[in-house]
Fold:
Amino acid sequence: MNEHIVSNSKYKWTFLNHIAETDLKLFAEQLNITETLARILMNRGIVTFDTARDFFRPSTDQLYDPFLMKDMDVAVERLVRAYNDGDKIMIYGDYDVDGTTGTALLYSYFRDIKANVSYYINDRIKEGYGIARSGIDHAHSMGVKIIISVDCGITAVSQAEYCREKGIDLIICDHHTVGDNVPKALAILNPKRPDCHYPFKDLCGCGVGFKLTQGVSKALGIDPSIAERYMDLVGVAVAADIVPLIDENRTITRLGLDIIQQSPRPCWIAMEKKTGLTLDRVNSSQIVFSIGPRINAVGRLGDAKRAVQMMVAETVAEAADYASVLESENTNRKTIDEDNYMDAGIVAEKFLRENSGLSIVLHNEKWHPGVIGIVASRLVEKHYRPAVMMTTIEGVAKGSARSIPGFDVYEAIKACEEFVIQFGGHKYAAGLSVKLENIPAFQAKFDEVVKQTLTADLLTPEIQIDSQIDFSEITDKFWKVLRQFQPHGPDNLRPVFYSDDVEIIGYPSVVGKGHLKFKAKQKGSPVFDVIGYNMESYYTSAVASGKALHMVYSINENVWNGQTQLQLQLKDLK
Structure:
């Protein structure tokens, strides 16, 4: 059973408590770790010695056979024939991190094995999301015989037909939800297909592309390490696309991070110089907040091929030129993002007041199409409501939808499809297009669907707590095991702890842009630095009260002036 505590903030605290104490003690003894660490593992479904060994020691042996994926045999057979005959292959990628890393991976792999390969990515403004006829026309003019789409294509019904008319075989590598109408492509590689029995359903688009390279390598008798050297690109895609970081995703990402840390390709060395990252310590969080936004920025504001050119560069000097462009575009993106967010924030407040108060559905022809997904995410973060942001592109409203944990925004849009031209995506993020005259009807329908399906329980954000601990448990030995739970992401979040009777030492302060900082201890424990990002509002209400605190936090390392020490990252307190 889970135990709930409502704090004096907006959060509900949930203590994960599924484990019998006898099982916990036995498991801790088997692994020679503390019961707290054993509890964290068991909360994640890791309850045997073998699964724990695989969790802590990921290897390529844990990767699934690519031929378990539906249509893999068809796709590989055609590509082997193309390889032998010299047929031209074109990689057709989406313009986000998942699509561009997938494009870089597939292009580089086929380049490495001396296949005849090129790549194409849409102009976000002119061609929009997915496979465009203009892209197919370009392929046809170049004599391309095979298009491999990556992170797009599962909704490309008419485009698949157009490929056939042009004499082009289409292989789709996608991971988005499969709709009722499936393209008649040569092969559709998507583990979410109802008729696909691949053991892991949550690969990202780049991950599906990686499985394809594994399949081709196996069929051609090529050393599997040639495909595996690109797991760093998959790891970046997994982290940035916010897919579950468990099972095969976690294995690939962990191995991919090892590549970045130990033998980084030129693009990561170039980005290290621009971002201040330390590659030998890079983690999934830094990918999400530092590397991912820079790769995304060039696709949001211009030509995403610049990101691919950086990732496929064979020298640091070449990669550095593109890394400079990514840095500049990301700076521009931040300015546009902030302007659009400030404008949308005012309209969002009005929409909430005038409707159910449970959803946000906005349209403005002046909003930049490259940042509306980011703005939608920020609105969700602020209001904790599903949000849809749309702008006008060539006479049609096009936009992005984002959701809160537990609410399926894809299904919500599907319930409104009478007013939607096209849509695609997954549970927490989707894209859509709507006729301008149908915007009011779509807004009303979406709001009604949310009102009928969004339960009250989902409206209170939840912090799930792995274990109660005393500060005295937080030792270097404890941290040495805890850090091996990385990489963190959905379904393998950074472990969260609860401690009571916490005492403030000295005076709290506010640093940076509203970050709360103080020192804390329990009776008889060491003193720890505590940082609460964007938690300035807690200063007077709780921290400065002089009372003992109940605190929820995670543990991480803080590196400053070459010194590394453990710190507690505050999540909430009461």
User: Anything to note?
Assistant: The longest helix spans residues 316-354. The mean pLDDT is 93.
